[in-house]
Amino acid sequence: MASELIYRGGHEAHPPTSGGAGYTPKPEKRLLWLSRPLRYLLREQRLLFVLVGMALASLLFILAPSSSSSYGSYSSAIASELALRSAMDHHHHYQRSAVEAASRGFVGGKVPLGIKRKGLRIVVTGGAGFVGSHLVDQLIARGDSVIVVDNFFTGRKENVMHHFGNPNFELIRHDVVEPLLLEVDQIYHLACPASPVHYKFNPVKTIISFFFSFLVDFVFLCVFLVVKLATFPLCFGLHKTNVVGTLNMLGLAKRVGARFLLTSTSEVYGDPLQHPQVETYWGNVNPIGVRSCYDEGKRTAETLTMDYHRGAQIEVRIARIFNTYGPRMCIDDGRVVSNFVAQALRKEPLTVYGDGKQTRSFQYVSDLVEGLMRLMDGEHIGPFNLGNPGEFTMLELAKVVQETIDPNAKIEFRANTADDPHKRKPDITKAKEMLGWEPKIPLRQGLPLMVNDFRKRIFGDHSDSNPSTTTTSKSTGSGSS
Ligand SMILES: NC(=O)c1ccc[n+]([C@@H]2O[C@H](COP(=O)([O-])OP(=O)(O)OC[C@H]3O[C@@H](n4cnc5c(N)ncnc54)[C@H](O)[C@@H]3O)[C@@H](O)[C@H]2O)c1
Hints:
Elements: H1 2-13, H2 26-30, H3 36-44, H4 46-63, H5 74-89, H6 98-105, E1 121-125, H7 130-141, E2 145-150, E3 169-173, E4 186-189, H8 196-199, H9 203-207, H10 215-229, H11 236-256, E5 259-265, H12 292-312, E6 316-321, E7 324-325, H13 336-345, E8 350-353, E9 359-361, E10 363-364, H14 365-377, E11 384-386, E12 391-393, H15 394-404, E13 411-414, H16 429-435, H17 443-458
Parallel strand pairs: 1-2, 1-4, 2-3, 4-5, 5-6, 6-11, 7-10, 8-13
Antiparallel strand pairs: 9-12
Helix pairs in contact: 5-6, 7-14, 11-12, 13-15
């Protein structure tokens, strides 16, 4: 210690001179241009530099791109959580912050070996419904915390009650036409009556659910109401859910920096003039028909979603879902698969509307859930068709139901409903290439799973009331939509 003090003093008192005959330490020569405090730091604070180096290395490790799945990582979740908490604390309600951008940048970061991935906080609107409840099962299974927001218009507590008591699960009875503030990382927006029976019941409510948070939203709502409500006075309920509900959820995504996924529909293609339907096809929709509250409501929801993405830099995803079936469908919701299954089980004739030559493709619910999660966690906005390209006429579907349930079931023809699309079949090339997704379960394999569920629910056998999402099917209802 003493020698050190002596040395420093000597150095200050006798700065080295070039070509001097005495001892001239090299470091002093190189650091001549540095200020005295900096030289002191360089020489004496080696521990500090070690710590700074470790911090930089950790930062690089966290920021390094990952080849692993984007289902989130420990570090990304922590970063997102901190960023979002910070954003909330400072009430950054309407401005994208650098914190949000940073949190997104961490998505897909590496998970250090031995450290368990921390789950995300996710809202699923319509999570007590058919598709939503299966999605919730999968999200919970992979370790996320899920908040279901549902008004139980068509959904049922029974669909999610097997999660009651799980600390990672919350259920809120709430109508999405009213604003809601939750601190979350992702929003799956499914809330919308999806079957003709239900959306025709309150069509205006179905379309409107999006508009209230901001002035621009209010102006948008006024324009929309003037144009749409004059035309569709009976559709208010459905419109309200699709427009005001979607606006509210987009507003929430904007406030908390969450990623937003809209479940749109193949109905945006209307009665398509292009077959199969590619995402670039703009559709052929009757804007004043009885189905338009649903079709146009979803088209408007897509428009709002993209406007929020372009105008407010919200991270969005759009899925265009084709006919899906499986356990937990509503039994009497007017969709063709649930209709046929319920009728066959009750020994009633299968009602075929029109000549039965109109086609649809039918996707098992677990395939859809996988597609939705890949879309949400991937890097592409969409829209993406999510459906099974296997195409069946209504008569072919009736025959599959007869084979599965009752070969003696009768078929009865009825007058077709207005604007019933003649053909529907997804082109899923984009989803295959960009999401690495395609359906795996063919109709003849998935239908028996759904039939088991319907049988139990129709005939009151509740011995297995909590079917798993993907391995058993318990649902009711089918429809021609
Ligand atoms: N199942 C399909 O074949 C299909 C096809 C295309 C698109 N989709 C879309 O997927 C989503 C889910 O469809 P699904 O088949 O599960 O329908 P579903 O009717 O079973 O589920 C919808 C859920 O949303 C809830 N909901 C409706 N309005 C609400 C509101 N205003 N506030 C809060 N909750 C509300 C319902 O109670 C229900 O739980 C819908 O957006 C639908 O348009 C489904």
